[in-house]
Amino acid sequence: MSDQKQVIIRFRKSASEEEKQHVLESLKAKGAKVVNTDNVDSQFFPFVVVTLPENQYGALAQDFSSGDHPVVQHIEEDQKVSIQ
Description:
Layout: E1 4-11, H1 17-29, E2 33-36, E3 47-53, H2 54-64, E4 72-77
Antiparallel strand pairs: 1-3, 1-4, 2-3
């Protein structure tokens, strides 16, 4: 089994519930697992957290990171942030 990567997927504020679900179903079909959907309907920063096989991350980043996707605004690898 390949390593997993945890990824934050930020949706456009204008994305409908159906559009978001379609993206999530598409990701699940590629081996992603939804980790957290607590903020999927946020009016300010709608996002979900998924894990997916590391070998799928590059293609996902290419598909969604251009800013041209009608539903996904941005993706990034989830990271720990610390302050000094």
